[in-house]
Design a protein that fits this description.
The chain is 40% helix and 24% strand. By secondary structure, it is α+β, with helices and mostly antiparallel strands. The chain folds into 2 domains: 149 residues, Sandwich (Jelly Rolls), CATH 2.60.120.10; 75 residues, Jelly Rolls (Sandwich), CATH 2.60.120.10.
C-alpha cells in the first residue's frame, strides 16, 4: 500500500467546481482540495481485504479505481454480498461516523485503488465544508435506502428467480438498448450472484439456463444480454 494525496488527479480542473466521478462530482474546489489533503491512497490486489467485518472502523474509503464487494458473513460460514462498490462510491461511512465496528468486510474484486479518510478528518471536513457535509448526509441516506432494498429483496421476494431477475434488471439499469436488446457488463461469477440473492451457486446456474432457454436473458463471457426486458421485469414480481 502506498500513501499519497488520493484525489489529486480528480481535482486538476480549471474551474471552481469539479466534475469527478460519483461522490466527488460537483463539490467545490475548496472542499475537494481539503478532502484530498485529508486522504491517503491505498492499493489492493484482487482478493485483498480493504477492511474486515468486526474491526473498529477507522475511517471511510472512496473507491477511485477497481471494484470492492461488501460481504456480511454468518457464524455458520455463509456469505452475503450486500453490494459491489464502483469507482466514485464511498464505503464504511456510517461505521466511521458512529465509531463502531464494521458491519461488513470489503474485498477488492480486481486491482483496486481507494482513498482513505480517517474518521476524525471527516468530522473536521464537515465543520468547514458545508457542501461536503451535505454530500455525506446524502450518501448516508443512499446507504440506508440500499440496505432497505436489500432486505426487501431477500425477505419479501417470493422465489430465487424473482431475486435473480431483480439483480439482472438492476445490473442493466444504465445500459443502452439496441434493437430491443439490452447489453451490459456482468463481471459476477455464479457464486457471487448467489451470495447477492441468498441462494446457492447451483440454483443460480440452473435459473440462468432457464432464462437462456426461454430466450429472455443470458450471461456469457462476462456480458449480460437481455432479449426480453419486459419478461425479465415480470419475473421480479
Amino acid at each position: 500500500m502506498a500513501t499519497a494525496t488520493a484525489i489529486a488527479s480528480l481535482i486538476e480542473q480549471p474551474m471552481g467546481r469539479v466534475e469527478g466521478p460519483g461522490f466527488i462530482a460537483g463539490l467545490s474546489r475548496q472542499s475537494t482540495e481539503a478532502l484530498a489533503k485529508a486522504s491517503s491512497r491505498m492499493t489492493f490486489d484482487a482478493g485483498e481485504l480493504v477492511y474486515t467485518e468486526g474491526e473498529v472502523a477507522e475511517g471511510a474509503f472512496i473507491v477511485l479505481r477497481g471494484k470492492v464487494k461488501l460481504v456480511a458473513n454468518s457464524s455458520d460460514g455463509k456469505a452475503l454480498i450486500l453490494r459491489i462498490a464502483q469507482p466514485g462510491e464511498i464505503i464504511a461511512l456510517s461505521a466511521a461516523l458512529s465509531e463502531r465496528v464494521n458491519d461488513t468486510s470489503a474485498e477488492a474484486v480486481e486491482p483496486t485503488t481507494v482513498s482513505f479518510i480517517p474518521g476524525a478528518a471527516i468530522y473536521r471536513l464537515m465543520e468547514t465544508c458545508g457542501d461536503l457535509a451535505l454530500r455525506l448526509a446524502h450518501e448516508l441516506s443512499i446507504e440506508y435506502s440500499s440496505l432497505c432494498q436489500e432486505l426487501s429483496t431477500l425477505g419479501l421476494q417470493r422465489s430465487a428467480m424473482s431475486r435473480l431477475a431483480k439483480l439482472l434488471v438492476g445490473m442493466a439499469r444504465n445500459a443502452a438498448t439496441q434493437a430491443g436488446t439490452v447489453t451490459s457488463p456482468c463481471p459476477l461469477t455464479h457464486e457471487e450472484m448467489a451470495q447477492m440473492i441468498g441462494t446457492s451457486r447451483e440454483t443460480v446456474t440452473r435459473l440462468l439456463h432457464d432464462l437462456r432457454d426461454d430466450g429472455i436473458a443470458m450471461v456469457k463471457n462476462e456480458t449480460l444480454t437481455i432479449s426480453k426486458i419486459d419478461n425479465l421485469r415480470a419475473l421480479m414480481n
